Every structure is written in C-alpha cells, then in structure tokens.
User: What shape does this take?
Amino acid sequence: MSTATVSLFAALLALLCLAGSIVVAVLALMRRSRPESAAAALFEDLGPLALWFAWVVSLATTLGSLYFSDVAGFLPCKLCWYQRIAMYPLSVLLLIAAVRRDRSVWVYVVPQATIGALIAAYHTQLQAFPDQSSSFCTLAAPCTERYVWEFGFVSLPFMALVAFVFIIAMVLVARSSGALSPQPVHSGQQVGVS
Amino acid sequence: MTGAKRVVSPPAKGPTRSMWIVGAVVLVVGIALVAAIAVSSSNKAGSGGTPKGSAGTVVANGSHESAPVTVSGAALPEFNLSASTTDAAVGQTAPTLTGVNFAGEPITIGNDGKPKVIMFLAHWCPHCQAEVPRIQNWLDEHGLPSDVSLYAMPTSTNASRPNYPPSAWLVGKNWTVPVLVDSEQSDAATAYGLTSFPYFVVIGADGKVVERTSGELSMTDFAKLIDSARTGHPQ
Assistant: This one.
C-alpha cells in the first residue's frame, strides 16, 4: 500500500472520529434532556464498547504515527513528538482499562489527552496557516511541513487532535453510561462492572 | 473494584445491539479503506496527485523539483548557529550526494579532488530569495571560479508554500550554478546538518568540511567562502 493510500485512509478515519465525537456529544445532550429516548438507549449501548473504541483509536493513531515516521520517512517535528508522548501510553492504558472495564480510567486519560489535544490544536492551526513564526519550528524538522494534506484541511496534527477528542469522548461515555442518575456529574464512585 | 461477576444484562438484547454498533463501525472503516485504495489508485493514473511518496516531484513542465538523493558517507552533525562553539563538522569528510538536476540529468557532489561550496536554498525562505539574485550578480561580474565548484541544492521544497516551484524561481533569476535537487524528505540537507536557510557548506580539495555558515551573506563574505574552499582554511 502506498503512502498516498495510507494518508487518505488515515484522513478518512480521522473524519470518522470527528463524526463519532459529534454524534456522541449529541447523544449525550439528548440523553440529558430526555433520559427515556432512543438516543439515551443508544448512548447506554455504547457504554460497554466505549473503552474498546478509545483503545482501538489510540492504537491506530500510535501505529499510524509510527508508519508515517518509520515507513513513509516523514520527519517528526518537536510538536509531533509532544503529541506522540501524550498518545502512545494511551494505547496501553486504555487496553488495560477496557479489559478491566475500569470506567474510572477517565480520571487519568482526560488530563493527558487534553494536553495532547491542546498541542495538536496549536499544531493544526500552524499547518493550516504556516506563515507565522513558531519557536517550535526548526528548519531541519519543520513543523509547518504538510506531510499529509487531504481534503484541504486534514493534516497529521488534525488527525491527532480528533483522535484525542474522540478518546476523551469515549472515556466520558464509559464513565457516565450505566449510571442510575441521568446527571452523573457528581456521582464520584463509579468504579465497577456493569 | 468488584469482582468480575458478569451480569448478563437484559438477555440477548444488550449484546446484540452492541454487536450492531461494532458491525456498523467495522463496515464504515472498511468502506473508508476501500475508498482510500480506489481513490489513490485512480489518482495515480491521472495527474494532479498530491506530491507524496519517494518518487520525487515532477511539475507539469517536466522539471524535477525534488528527486531521490543517494547519500553515502557519515552524516555531518547539525549546524549550530552559536558562534561560541567550534563546528564539530570541520575536518569531517562530507557525505557524497548523488541525484539529478531540474532537467533530470544525473549529478554527483562528491570528493572529486576539487574544493567546493554547496548552497542549500529553500524557495519559500525570504533570505534565500534575497540572497540568490545577489550571488548571481556577483557571479555575472566575477564569473564562476574555475578552481572551486559551486553547487546549489533546492531543499525543503513544498508545493503548498510560496514561490513554488524552485526551478521557476532560479531560472527567473538566470541562475547559472549547477543544481542538485534534494529529496522530498530533504535527505541531503539532513545529512549535511542543515538547521536554517540559506546554508553554506565549504568543502576543501580533500573532501573534508572547511567551514559551515548560515544566513544572508554579504558578497564580501561570499567571496571569503570561495577563498576558504580554495585554501582549505576558513578565511
């Protein structure tokens, strides 16, 4: 499979992640306003799968980033490395959490993924609007280099950004689904199995 | 943590609906994969594919804007702008570069017993854009030195950045210095420890690095680089 194919596939997966995140957010809102609705039921059905989805996405992102650096030969810049540091451990952490059905894993995942998402967001806008000076850019590993640029906006940091957002959405789904209260914001102890 | 006592919740209903969700996700991902393969293979047939992969970039007029470069020999350490440190690359044998020029003709920059100055240029770098006509004017005035080879290496070439393609830029400036285009991954620039543009590497007759410098040069400094190459000692 050529690099162009993998880039396009990765970009499509990123769009799926984005769509998934939006759907989950909408379902969560509908569930909150109408706990008996079909949307709420669908949200509940997602619950047991959410950590697995989060893990699959973290694994795909990890392997994808390794493909682009080690097979396609793209040079990771400093910002790429920071995003990798935030993403790679999740591929192990989320697997363990999924196997153990540890719905409280969001406590660990959300802060780390948020940091990753913030760096990815900065990097995404930097690639979208490269004519700005950034101290993160060295010319040997330029962080404005668009190694992947699909559909006019999907770059590698964009993929990282939506992956982080999707993972955050999924660990929050795992956290709140199956809760007795439709507003589980303050119901702290949620460790356990379904 | 409660033990792993699996309560099989409302018989059959839950698991089946979960399976539907998983099935739908797998299906959509499969469609994405098929679409990616289909689209990229049809792109290959036509033109206008995004410049990716290792084959290099050839623009519509047939000019080679980037092409694979073979690097042999140990890479030079990264160039450090700080003047307080001595350049560790000095005295090290420069790697040999083999590739093509804009026209696709093979060109090698190697230890041919002749001193040389290699200039690394990026089409989008404002300092390079300022430096190129200045160097060309100087060369028009003084002529290409006969005892020192000059080479220009367009690197970090990127179709999405300003002043693309580099061939049109350099031809527009009546550039006379032989060109070796870098690869899309800037292999040659990396092997030469490039950290900023424009970047000059002076190599003595023995094939060893004499000095490296970066930034816009005055023509006095440029002439000094040629002298450095000629004498084998930084001037």
Q: What stands out?
A: The two ends of chain B are 73 Å apart (CA to CA).
